[in-house]
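Box 3.1 A note on notation
Throughout this textbook, protein chains are presented in two layers. The first layer is the amino acid sequence; the second is a token string describing backbone geometry. Keep the layers aligned when reading.
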Amino acid sequence: MGVLRFLIAAGVSASALFAMSAPADYVQSLKTYLSDKQFAVNGKFYMYDFNHDGKIARNDWLYIDTASGAAYRLMGKTPTQNDAFGWLPLQSLPTDLDITNPSGYFIFINFPKDQELYGTNAFSWVYVTNGATYKLMGADENHNFDYLDENGDGRADALSGITYSLSGNSILFRYSQAASVPEGTQTKVSCSDEQSVNYGGALFYSKVESWYQGDIVYNCKNDAMYTWSLSVPSITITQIVKTMDVDIRFDNNRAAGTVTIDYKAGSVHNKGTYNGTYFDCYEYYIPPLPQTISQSEHDKLEELMEWEGDGPCDPTFIRTTCPSWYYDDLDSCDINGHEKPNPVEQARSLDADIKTNWNVTDSDGKSHKVYVHDIYKIQ
């Protein structure tokens, strides 16, 4: 994959948010209950690589109780009926844990309807992270956190209309109900997320800001169960024009430019500079469109939306006008179609800024738009 089509895979993975739906009156009552109330922050949650193997497993999370300072490891011991998440007390904190940057905060809210509907307030907690608030609903059969699915799509949702402000170990919630949108009006939905993780002395940082408009839904959250989804039962996509403005610095190198991808034509236009050397060239592939995708085919939708061609190693590749040095210096595939290490993925330091626009047309002539701005750093 060429550097101008590079999407960093730093090995950072967050736990998926499993979902559980609730009655509509429960959701509305919950938001009203939280509105303008101040609660104590009961604990701080940290992503921590206990095994120092560069991977975040489901038990690589650490919880610190703010009142006592006691620390616990998630799934550190076998869960039980009375300890659904297997919290293991720690004798001391890891010396390399950055306690100033928690991944999120847990707050006990003692919401009356939890006791009323479910017979217990044991899961009457909310988890707040990166501007979003998630309501804990219980534990699934595999002892994962089960969070509220507000819209019934099978995915955990941040509580819509809920914002918060933190002050020390206190948090204040606000509820602002969005004004109704006239039927048939296409709204723009925004999303943002940020993550910073230390591994073996290296800082991995990522930030994403995005919006979508239409029936193709983009969820930018690191812990999203599905990044891409549809708000309609199915769609037949007839054209996608995708543009990427890229500026990547890795080790002592820099690549910057623009990629324009015409899915219907199967063409990828790479234009920019690499360490001061200019390039302006095309790659041609068997076109991936049209395609019909159902609402349940999240992987198929993701593969299509993220399609950028993989150079001469791609089985749909036809020809290129790009010079051989382009593939030698910037790609994981050489001009002859042989796989090799990607210099960007092998880099020890990275600073990447990627802005991507998708303009999608379906068989009914409707337009769908998605914009994503990614920032990645390894230092």
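DSSP finds four helices and 24 strands in the chain. The longest strand covers residues 234-250.
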